[in-house]
Write a structure and sequence with these properties.
Order of helices and strands: EHEEEEEEHEEEEHH
CATH class of the largest domain: Alpha Beta
GO molecular function, one term: calcium ion binding
InterPro entries: PPIase_dom_sf, TSP_type-3_rpt
Helix content: 10-25%
CATH architecture of the largest domain: Roll
Number of domains: 2
Distance between the termini: 64 Å
Shape: globular
Number of helices: 4
Number of strands: 11
Radius of gyration: 22 Å
Strand order of the largest sheet: 4-5-10-11-6-7
Length: 310
């Protein structure tokens, strides 16, 4: 029988904030990111080599929730297959802050729903955050909405490996039943998490962490309502919507995915991608066919010289 959850709608979990650490506010010098990652990857590989999950209890044909339990390879469990040797574990990479980071995703069930989130979308999700001592530092058993651009990088990137559930049925008692949800665990170094600015002492500075997740629902998102999906406002395709000037065309300090006038020419982005009747000239939020009046290779909504040159 599928587990039931109350459906809560909030914008983001307190402990999943992706606020950048303020290196200048610390009297203690912040450690070198590459040096910390070199330590973190050893810690992660050691953990994955000495722990297993209850894979023998998982029935892929059962659409109900499955509680992932991680334990040490010792005693009666010494002959279990280590996480690092499970075919469900994927080793992924991303470059951030000039460091080539690696992180791991244990994909117990990919999810059978239609939508897979990007790092620019919103998700209804249940999760449990824990450190490598298996101590829980944050948990949301009841699903809540998380806006992925406002979460830590490792979390948002890891979620893109899963899909939403197939069914959401409201029960007579007001709870919801989800089936075939994407489920797994994301393991990440501190450079893709909280680095030197953890939200609580259970995490600690510079420590790798993990999140067990159940992905319920995906909402493909246009944060500023300009008609362009947020995923297409990552102009340098580095999987980060806040890459400074690279994702802030007019340099006003507001990333394009939150800026209703991307080029700062006084004409809203939505107006520049619409006809005279207000109908969008692009399909499905994809600006690849957006108007380029002066044929300079830069669409009007990103070109503040268009009006001046016309």
């Amino acid at each position: 029988m599928a587990m039931k959850y109350l459906l809560y709608t909030i914008l983001a979990g307190l402990l999943l904030s992706s606020c950048e650490s303020d290196d200048d506010s610390n009297t203690i010098p912040v450690r070198d990111r590459q040096e910390v990652f070199d330590e973190n990857i050893i810690d992660l590989e050691t953990y994955l080599s000495t722990h297993f999950y209850n894979y023998e209890d998982f029935d892929p044909a059962n659409p109900s929730d499955f509680e992932i339990v991680i334990d040490t390879l010792a005693g009666a469990n010494a002959d279990k297959i280590a996480l690092i040797d499970r075919p469900e574990l994927e080793r992924l990479s991303i470059t951030r802050d000039e460091v080539d980071y690696e992180y791991f995703v244990l994909k117990v069930r990919e999810g059978e729903g239609a939508l897979r989130p990007t790092y620019a979308d919103s998700t209804l999700i249940s999760y449990r955050g824990f450190n490598l001592q298996n101590e829980v530092f944050d948990e949301a058993q009841n699903p809540l909405w998380l806006d992925l651009p406002n979460t830590i990088a490792g979390f948002s990137l890891g979620l893109t490996e899963f899909k939403e559930s197939t069914d959401r049925v409201q029960n007579p008692d007001g709870t919801f039943t989800f089936e075939n949800s994407g489920m797994g665990v994301i393991f990440m170094p501190s450079g893709l998490a909280y680095f030197n600015n953890p939200p609580n002492n259970t995490i600690g500075q510079y420590n790798p962490i993990a999140f067990s997740i159940k992905l319920r629902t995906v909402e493909i998102t246009d944060h500023d309502g300009d008609g362009i999906l947020s995923i297409y406002e990552d102009l340098n395709n580095d999987r980060n919507l806040r890459s400074g000037d690279a994702d802030d065309t007019d340099g006003d300090g507001i990333s394009n995915f939150l800026d209703a006038d991307d080029d700062g020419d006084g004409i809203s982005t939505r107006e520049e991608i619409s006809d005279e009747d207000g109908n969008l000239l692009i399909l499905n939020g994809d600006p690849s066919t957006a108007p380029d009046s002066d044929n300079d290779g830069i669409p009007d909504y990103l070109d503040n010289r268009t009006e001046a040159s016309s």
